[in-house]
Amino acid sequence: MKTDVVIIGGGVIGTAIARELSRFNINIILIEKEDDVAMGTSKGNSGIIHAGYNDDFNTLKGELNIKSNPKFDKLCADLKILFKRIGSLVIGFSQEDFRKLKELKENGEKNGIENLEIIRGPKLFELEPNLNPQAKYALYAPSAGIISPYKFTIALADNAVINGVKVLLETEAKDIRIEEKQVYGVVTNRGLIETRIVINAAGLHADEIAEAAGDNFKINPIKGEYQLFDKQWGNLVNHILFPIPTKLSKGILVAPTVHDNLLIGPNSYWVKDKDDPATTKAGTEEVCEGARKLVPNLPHQDLVASFAGLRADIEGRNDFIIEASKKIRGFINVADIESPGLSSVPAIAEMVSGILKEVVKEISPQLELNCQDDFVETLVEQPKFADYLDKTGEWQEIVEKDTDYGEIICRCEKVSKGEILRAIHQPLPARSLDAIKRRVRAGMGRCQGGFCSPKVLKILSEELKISPLKVSKKGPGSEILKTKTKEIIKETGVKFKDEVRV
């Protein structure tokens, strides 16, 4: 297999780069070792689009966050995903906190952020009635917002595929083939992909990919644990609430989600395993304790899910790495993209596009990066039953055109069969229960798939034309069903009511 550019990593950074580069008339392959995009840091984070007051504008973090923040309204409208610019409040309790808030405000204003305001007194509790009564001050940043990071990643990938990018899932980069200090190809578990340009957007594993190309830095994973509450608690707060930030993190926040749940977290601590998203009892307690400092009357029940995310950190470094290798021609690192990485996505992709142009001039002057005349900027709006609950007449018109939209599969999240079928056949198709969940939310409600999972499994089996025994939760090795009960009956004589046994 041969191509012009290989992007390693199907997180939000890799897919955003793929979409941006698909503007050019070049061949692009994105490889991802998991069975779907958004399987790492991009699915386990807060989903916050930061205003940009926290980082120095002289850093890439500060510069790219500031450039990106205003772009999210149009970008999310083009990709047909939710983005809510609800604003953020950094909460202070003491005079020392007040001094820190002033520093953040001054830094933000130097960065060019408008409408920053330090709020105190009754106005603070008018904005947030459930805030800790001991709170005295808050830095208000109206430009902050919330997004679904995994839906954003999937939409970017869909748009890239529509524009010609080839996405190879379950394809792991094993090595970088180099000849005479020039990239020659990427060795994968499925064979060699010949290319002269590699973009390393491998997230937590970017250091391993970089080492294969002769660049040396060490990524240490930082784990953050979260708790997600039922939608009836989504209006407990109106803004993103932050504590005073520390050098390690922006702290344990309390915020609504774009899907009207309530999210608290994360804590932050270094771990050794880059692929261990397990939650802990101590972590759960720490998150609850930290969140209750901001909102004391957090619910003690209606917890929908606990989860953890891992993010990349290079000890002693406090900035992104976005640059062409100085040792190997054709190799570009996009690494150490921790917070505000999600908030910086559009500008990161544009910066990589600029670097690519310079790399092409150096190694392939004959390869002209001309823009495609038929680049597709937007995705098509797809009907969602949850959006039509008070417009039943309009939904009925959709059902009359396609009866699959009349069968509700997920009761908690109000997801129809038509939406699930569409997810299976969209540009980057869903092939597992979790992939369906990330696209249309079937299984994300109160029962966490207890009711709808067997139905989704059946739909996947029928549409993919595979045995129910082959349907997985999240790719090979996570198959849901073990064997047919008829085979158990034959072997043991024990009878079960159902045809298959989990």
TrEMBL record:
Residues of the BFD-like [2Fe-2S]-binding domain: 408-462
Residue ranges constituting the FAD dependent oxidoreductase domain according to the UniProt record: 4-353
Pfam families per UniProt: DAO (PF01266), Fer2_BFD (PF04324)
Top-rank taxon: Bacteria
Gene3D superfamilies, per the entry: BFD-like [2Fe-2S]-binding domain (1.10.10.1100), D-Amino Acid Oxidase, subunit A, domain 2 (3.30.9.10), FAD/NAD(P)-binding domain (3.50.50.60)
InterPro entries registered for this protein in UniProt: BFD-like_2Fe2S-bd_dom (IPR007419), BFD-like_2Fe2S-bd_dom_sf (IPR041854), FAD-dep_OxRdtase (IPR006076), FAD/NAD-bd_sf (IPR036188), G3P_Oxidase/Oxidoreductase (IPR052745)
PANTHER family tied to this protein: GLYCEROL 3-PHOSPHATE OXIDASE, GLYCEROL-3-PHOSPHATE DEHYDROGENASE
Protein name: FAD/NAD(P)-binding oxidoreductase
Organism: Candidatus Sediminicultor quintus
